[in-house]
Amino acid sequence: MGELYFKTKGLTVGYNGKPLIRDIEFGVERGEILTLIGPNGSGKSTILKSITKQLKILAGTVYIAEDDLKTVSAKELAKKMSVVLTERMKPELMSCRDIVATGRYPYTGNLGLLSEEDEAIVQQSMESVHVLDLQNRDFNAISDGQRQRVLLARALCQQPEIIILDEPTSFLDIRHKLELLSLLRKLTKERDIAVIMSLHEIDLAQKVSDKVICVKGEIIARYGTPAEVFQEETIRELYGIENGTYDPLFGSIELGRPQGTPEILVLSNGGSGIPVYRDLQKQGTPFAAAILSTNDMDYAVARHMATEIVTAAPFQPITEEALDRTMALVRSCKEVIDAGVTIGQTNQAMEEILAEAERLGKRKKVKQHDVLPV
Amino acid sequence: MGKSNPENGYDLLKRRLRCETVFVLLILAFCVITVLNINIGSVPISVKEIARILFLQEGDATQMNIVWRIRLPRIITAAVLGGGLSLSGFLLQTFFSNPIAGPFVLGISSGAKLTVALTMIYALSWAGHVSSFLLVLAAFVGSMLSTGFILLVSSKLKNMSALLVAGIMIGYICSAITDFAVTFAEESDIINLRNWSLGSFSGMSWDNVKIACIIVGITSVCVFFLSKPINAYQLGENYARSMGVNIKMFRTALILLSSVLSATVTAFAGPISFVGIAVPHLIKRSLNTSKPIVVIPACFLGGAVFCMFCDLVARTAFAPSELNISTVTSIFGAPVVIAMMIKRQKEKQ
Fold first, then answer.
1. Taking the model in full, what pTM does it have?
2. What are B316-332's pLDDT values in tens digits?
3. Environment class of residue A352 by beta-carbon count within 10 Å: exposed (0-12), middle (13-18) or buried (19+)?
4. How far does the CA of residue B219 sit from the closest CA of chain A (Å)?
5. Which CATH number do you get for residue B215?
6. Together in a domain, B130 and B187
7. CB-based contact B242 A110, cutoff 8 Å
């Protein structure tokens, strides 16, 4: 692991001299992405504004390449750090290439004329984020996704060692979010740039970041690798999630489970139950799921939605106890949904359960959804 | 690097050609209007005569007098002050990131008008004479006061239209006070004032022309050397800061320079409306860029041409009586501003 390129020590940030967040300590190496997550108004932007010298630092120190940020002149800093901001700019009559070319500011002479070398860097920056075909277009006339990429090209054109992005995915649809983040991922590695950004999408933050900071109110709630930070409880607490759950494994968010005693029993495995769970959850019907091996993907989803789950240990035969409990559910529930059960050597008992449901006239077969392409 | 797809080609040449065309046309218009301005009047002077008078300094004595004493100073005044006014508008538009900002709408001209009027009335009644330098100084103080007030308001109101309304209100207040002062002033003190407060390029002595040229010239060169930070500032304050622009110093420079320009114009020619908004807009549209390094000189040239043209109309349309210069600039400038606002509204939708 290399040296930390950019780090903070006992940093306190806030507006108008009023501290908002204290004792912020984090660091990022070149080639790494550090992401700030946290609810709206938690202070992500305040931190980013403070480390880019837009806001005055209230206490503590920020180091960039070993130097105290306070002692680095604006001009020197511009050669090391570039930004992509949330504010929507409306420049008049500027082509995308004009916008990107402003990134050469710290390198050009008194009149800001671009040398041939500057032009080549502009060209190459636009190529690397695939916006060269937009170069003659008016910046105000392109889509949000294109705009963010042009702004990223502008940031690259400044030839920085660190880029700071404030919610770069805010106005983008899912395709453009993915595009932008994978570009960022690629460029950080290729060009050995450190990246600090804030993101709303925790699922994407988990997948794109090397380090994550949870910002909430007074202090930094957590700081670490995605694996350390993305724990179910951490995320629930950070965002104050009450009506739903967060799955750290997939980085997905599920709505809360229906409350009450199970009215329906869903029999499934291997993913066939998931669409049924979602339907029942949307209807608000409490349900039970059986008999799921704890490494079954149905189990991973049912965990967040089912009122009760009857489980089996992976690759082990179904226990007596589990069978009894399921039989009891078959009798107590109004309906038993057979979402498609694959039966093999370890779950022969499922045959019995299905037969019992059939006998009681409660078995309802649903068309098996293709969860995974076969 | 790699393929040079013609569709991907950067139309640098096309853009350069467009800029060059605009500049050539402006210079051509400048020359034609200069000649017309000398040529047309109560005593028409032929082009051949003009050339002789200007370059050889010989010819009919009356005509020599008319050209050298009356028409030429007036043309130069119109050109220099028009250029300055247009630049001042461009600077204010940059500062407020609002294309409708200008020294007249923001009440800056009116502030200068007020202090100049007061200076004229009181200095005349005390000293019997007002130096042009004192007038410029007074105008500068007035425009700085108005600008200061506008800045105060703009720190409280983020809304741009509210800012413009505030500017127009300042304009009314200043005009009201000016009228008040004029009403109670001695008749003999205000003969010049009446003419001046309506706006005119006439009656400039060579001394005044020199002073105007020096002030506007130096300021305009300073503005030109600000084109790099202006370009960065067009992306917004925060981006500019991230590129290493010292925002505080830059903003102060913008305000000072635009105030000096509009103050000089007001001191010599009175308040002139719409030039500051209409000309930069027309220039940017015709250049199809807002790059300050080309827009600044083109704005100056455009402002000069526009004011010389308006002055020609003011002088000749209802000869022998003359129109106020502001009347003419409004007639030509206001429709441009209205068209611009409608276009912007359309672009928003």
1. 0.86
2. 888 778 888 888 999 99
3. middle
4. 16
5. 1.10.3470.10
6. yes
7. no
